[in-house]
Amino acid sequence: MATSLKTLESLGKALALVPEVSFLPILGNYCVCSRGRAFAMVRDDQLFLKTSPETLCLFRDTTTRPFPGSVTMCKANDEWLEDPEKLGEVVLYTLASHPPPSQPGPARPAAREGRLVRVLWGTALAAGAVFTALYFLLPCRALGRLGIHKGAKAENFAVTGLGGEKIRLSDCGGKPALLYVWETFSQRAIDNLPMIDSLYAEYKDRQVCFLPVTITPDFNLDVRAFAATKALKYPVYNGAGRLPAQFLPEQSPMLYLIDHEGFVRDSYSPSINDLEEISSDLEALLRDVPAAPGP
Fold first, then answer.
1. Assigned CATH for 158-288
2. In sequence order, which residues have a C-beta less than 8 Å from that of residue 235 and are 6 or more positions away?
3. pLDDT band per the 50, 70, 90 thresholds, residue 293
4. Which of 1, 76, 127, 135 is 20 to 30 A distant from 175 in Cα terms?
5. pLDDT digit string (tens) for 259-283?
6. CA–CA distance, 226 with 219 (Å, rounded to integer)
7. Would you list the domain boundaries of the chain?
8. pLDDT tens digits for 101-130?
9. Which CATH number fits domain 5-97: 1.20.1250.20, 3.30.70.980, 3.40.30.10, 3.30.1460.30?
């Protein structure tokens, strides 16, 4: 069974926190690289990651598989593919545990030069370890000041509401955004109505841009009838054919939390049981918003 392009697209989204991911075809498989460094393989729609003694305990399936180049890997846990932050954590730790090999060069017999190389290499490894620790331990606001962001940049889009009002993501103007993508004929979306209503009631008067966007094709008929029948209290926007690919779910509904700088920080395939977690994550985004300057 060959790996499908749909699988590669899904993996690209799941690896959103890993910098500069690329997929290179090799002998019927795909080598997955970050900035040119291989850390995984894709075979038959399955993801396999490099392992180390420190990370092996994280894998549910610890059966090792040899790949071209004598690299040994283990199958990624299925839940990691639904959690970009967890998968990114494992991959970044893996990259830190597998430093790039030194390039061969002419022999340097001088002991002093050899010591210098070891010192420089040790410094580079220490810097890499510090960077990895900062990435996972520092709050997102502090990382943002360093030019590091946990998440992919959200592409701008424009949608229209039931009353003809238009809004762009860029109009959120430095506020966190809650983007809920749903369809009227999704039973899960119907089951989520009380949760979305609760979130809107809690955050409509706070510094949050609330964007329930439906991708139902017939906005004028189906969506208007649905909104009237369910007596929806929150705004409804038409996103059919208007949302960028990064927000088009394989199944709806999906909920995305976007920080005040426009980076996607969390995504969920939500249910009513996720209300507390979503509220907690949204509160964290609000805490990251810089305080307004005083008079």
1. 3.40.30.10
2. 161, 162, 210, 212
3. low
4. 135
5. 999 999 888 888 888 999 999 999 9
6. 10
7. 5-97, 158-288
8. 544 545 445 455 556 655 565 665 555 555
9. 3.30.1460.30
